[in-house]
């Protein structure tokens, strides 16, 4: 069982600015008082009681911590320490200063496939490492792929957010409904037994978006997106893929495969000719092909807009509920917690699938 320190985190770290927010708390800059080193602190709210629906089960946080403790890789966010108080757990993690990979790319004028592949390789290195340890991330998406330092000549990819990750035990069947609709594989929607291959599907979707600025299965609604995924309803629209090499399309096609056992593994990806060309002709093709930057920028701007819209709506809902609870009086505290959580998870099917709904047998 993961050991969480009982010290007051504020005695050892000075708490600084908010770096980001998730469904269960905030990530803030924290400075270690003893050394002056700056880290990130992920503050996760714990459930207050068995009946409370707000916050995370301690067991779920333990799972995230145990997984992070077993992963030491250049392309995976590192974990330093864990503190626990009555209401929350604080993970002291590696500070990642470079922001999201997609934002970094969107700032560029153009990008060849060869340059994009340098990032893909690092994502695959990190994923291959965790898969070798029988760990699947289950929430790979642009928001969870960050850069150590965007001003470095060759910035390192850092994969973050292991809140939905799972370590497979031999003979165990694991099912989960967690994930973000655009990026999840058909096996998740169909509630079938899962494997590390689910991450490879997400990498296929991420690569497709990176090259074209289109999301392969995106529908008008989440229901439509999920239907498109199950029906394998995607194509390489020539208008958006005119600058894309055939090797890149082949790479994606070998990942967006319904049968998990037939999908390329991370190790196979690393030796696919798009990633590791076999001859000069293949190298030249990659250099001549580029990502559809105009459309990619549009995709990224829409994505950021949606993220801030979701954040503002969540804040508004929370404020409305607080006012409502104040009017009801302090004895309704527990009820407030349940309701605010219901609001958060009940607005759209996407959030129904959001997180930590899983079963093992
Ligand atoms: P979710 O609701 O998506 O599961 P979460 O509560 O598990 O989120 P994270 O996704 O881990 O939280 O982090 C939320 C945000 O905080 C991230 O999107 C990112 O912007 C920022 N963040 C997370 N980890 C770090 C880090 N190590 N360094 C800098 N910023 C970070």
TrEMBL record:
Keywords: ATP-binding, Kinase, Nucleotide-binding, Serine/threonine-protein kinase, Transferase. It holds the Pfam family Pkinase. GO terms for biological process: intracellular signal transduction; positive regulation of apoptotic process. InterPro entries: Kinase-like_dom_sf, Prot_kinase_dom, Protein_kinase_ATP_BS, Ser/Thr_kinase_AS. The keyword Ubl conjugation does not apply. It comes from the Eukaryota. The keyword ATP-binding applies. SMART domains: S_TKc. One of its GO terms (molecular function) is ATP binding. One of its GO terms (cellular component) is nucleus. Belongs to the protein kinase superfamily. This is Uncharacterized protein. It comes from Cirrhinus molitorella.
